[in-house]
Amino acid sequence: MIKVGKQNLITDVPGIRVGNIHDQKIRSGVTVIIPDEPAVAAADIRGGGPGSRETEALNPDCLVDVVHGIVLSGGSAFGLDAAGGVMASLKEKRIGKTFDLGNVGAGYGAIAGGLKGGLGSASFVFFDGKSEITLGAIAAVNSMGSLTMPGSPTMWAFPYEQNQELGNQPMPAKTIKMDLDFTFELPVGKNTTLVTVATDAALTKPQARRVAIMAQDGLARGVYQAQSLGDLDSYRDRYGS
User: Fold this and answer.
1) Which residues make Cβ contacts (< 8 Å) with residue 55, sequence separation at least 6?
2) 0.85 exceeded by the pTM?
3) How far apart are CA 127 and CA 10, in angstroms?
4) What's the angle, vertex CA 238, arms to CA 143 and CA 31, rounded to 5?
5) CA separation for the pair 224, 146 (Å, rounded)
């Protein structure tokens, strides 16, 4: 049996906390995901404009097995400096179990294919009759690709909506023209999609890496086009027992 998590947020996963902060002047911000205990993690980064810090050490054949925090930041290379501040104040965490969504944190000022982007989160609980596993995700979407079908308010992700979390998506019209020559209206090279997936399932680092790779399919299902030259598409998975 699969059901939506209690709050439909990544913090439905036990031991996960999230904090947001943004700057109105530069229209950018930071979202930080903190596990209560050091967590097994892996990263899968695609797209033509990668910007990351210390993710190479998470590869299965590298030294680092766990992380103490994950930082999703806007501002491209300048945003990477936010990780230094998180490291310096990790012991002074001022975050809680619930958090704001939308135009906040790493989603502040975001534009997604010409529409307003932002920060979103969801969760699922899997029950096999004996035990439960909770899986949650948080995404900062500032994509070059579109979230909606051509000439329609219907999102590409409409088949996966749970409990009207996408605003009760309408069924797409059968007459929608699918133009293969996709035209981008935004400046190329100013886009990014950052996602963190968390679960209380006990996985090894190679297993977490495999799930991070699989999670890229979620981006491809929700954004057209994804993983382009102008995007940094980053997935970081946190797994712990």
Assistant:
1) 43, 45, 234, 236
2) no
3) 17
4) 45
5) 5
Give the residue ranges of DSSP H helices in 99-204. Answer: none
Cβ atoms 26, 207 nearer than 8 A:
no
Domain range summary for the chain, segments of one domain joined by +: 2-162+189-239
- Provide the residue-wise pLDDT of the chain in tens; the chain has 241 residues: 889 999 999 999 999 999 898 888 878 888 989 898 889 988 888 766 666 777 777 887 777 778 888 888 876 666 676 776 776 666 565 444 478 999 999 899 898 888 899 999 999 999 988 899 999 999 999 888 888 888 788 898 888 888 888 888 888 877 777 665 555 555 555 678 889 999 999 999 889 988 888 888 888 888 887 776 656 555 555 555 3
The number of beta carbons lying within 10 Å of the beta carbon of residue 172 is 17
Cβ neighbours of 154 (radius 10 Å)? 17
Task: Provide the CATH number for the domain formed by 2-162+189-239 in this structure.
Answer: 3.60.70.12
